[in-house]
Amino acid sequence: MALHDRPIGERIEALLALSQEHAETFCSPSAWLARERYLAAHPTRILVMKCMDGRIHLPHVTQTPLGIITPFRNLGGIFHLGWPYLGEMLTDAVHEAIHQGNGVLLIISYHFSRGDRSRGCAGFACDADAALAHAYEIRQQAERIFGSDHSHVYPLVCGFETDTNALIVHGDSGSKLDMSDLGPGDEHDLERLVAGLCPDMPADIRRDLMPLLRGNLRHVESLRPTSRELDIEHREWVICIGRGFDFLHLPNTALIVGPYSPDLSEPVATAAEIIAANMKAGRIPDDGFLLLASTPYEAFGVDRARAELKSRFLSEFAAGVIRREHPELANRMISRTAIVHWPSRRLELLEHA
Q1: What contacts 261, CB < 8 A, 6 or more positions away?
Q2: Of 214, 229, 244, which residue constitutes the final position of a domain?
Q3: Residue 140 DSSP one-character state
Q4: φ and ψ at 232, to 5 degrees?
Q5: Would you tell me how many other CB atoms lie within 10 Å of the CB of residue 251?
Q6: What is the pLDDT of residue 234?
Q7: What is the distance between the alpha carbons of residues 70 and 212, in angstroms, rounded to a whole number?
Q8: Are residues 220 and 249 in the same domain?
Q9: What is the count of structural domains for the chain?
Q10: Which ranges carry the Carboxysome Shell Carbonic Anhydrase catalytic domain (predicted)?
Q11: Average of per-residue pLDDT values in the chain
Q12: pLDDT value for 118
């Protein structure tokens, strides 16, 4: 039986087991060496602004080792780089990369469905043009902060078509490169195509974009002969709020709300609406859903204590929004609060106060 179809208790147990397995794998000598080797060959820091939609999992669709791509998630991929917490985190990540002598690839993503408009992005009422326009607004904000010459930070608008899992790279003057239009024979021509599409992209950043595009090309090709009816529809049964959800590398499982927006109530309410719709449509059992709050910490002592406090706040806040906006769904809510030791990716459940 697929995980989505199991009773809620079994689903939660499986998810927590996955987190433990992920931490063990992440800390293994082989995984550590794989990350170090990848970063030695491709040192560009990759940051992604993306939707909370559980169908969009870039490490999975680009065949990239976990821990390489740093995601920033919010409803619809809707961000404003003037948001205080988001702006600080983004600039800190850029400064860290620059101080190490590396450039930054800032992927600004949006998503849509070609097969059915209603499977598009809820944050933009399934309007792909509006989502794309917003992505370009974020790009302009990034240029104001990091420079319009793109010498050190390259803001790249990138679409994600959920029916095929294909990336769509947008260049200047409306030009684009749709990975679903390519085949295995085009893999060696990708760098030339991207150079023509984005002529101002620094060579080192373009070099480090190539593994993602090649991985996506192979991923899309592997899906062509398969039936994906269950994957392209929403089937999420978890609402995550906070950060530190690297272990959730199962597509279409969780809606992840990052703690960036000054008003978190809107993405939480929308996530609850999607869960309720999944239950109503029979895509997941109606016996419950999981609300999981998490905050990463680096060091013991004050940093860990603050992470605990933050996770408890996020959990209580999200639960309150769900009770207010979706009282019937709230009766099926199972809440768990956690912190994550970031160097080891180990998830630690907290006792309810």
Answers
A1: 74, 75, 78, 79, 83, 86, 267
A2: 229
A3: H
A4: -85, -15
A5: 18
A6: 72
A7: 13
A8: no
A9: 2
A10: 92-170
A11: 91
A12: 78
Are residues 145 and 189 located together in one domain of the fold?
A: yes
CA distances (Å), 12 to each of 8, 233, 291, 292, in order? 6, 21, 10, 10
> CA-to-CA distance for 323 and 144, rounded, in angstroms?
40
> 128 and 196 share a domain?
yes
Structure tokens, 278: 């999944």
| Cα dist from 329 to 8, 29, 145, 269, whole Å | 14, 43, 41, 11
Residue 310: name the closest of 238, 241, 239 by CA.
241
Rounded Cα distance, 198 and 134, in Å: 19
What global pTM score does this model have?
0.88
- Measured distance CA(255)–CA(61) in Å, rounded: 17
Q: Which residues of 92-117 are buried (b: 16+ CB within 10 A; e: fewer)?
A: ebbeebeeeebbbbbbbbbbbbeeee
Give the residue from 208, 229, 250 where a domain finishes: 229
Residue 156: helix, strand or coil by DSSP? strand
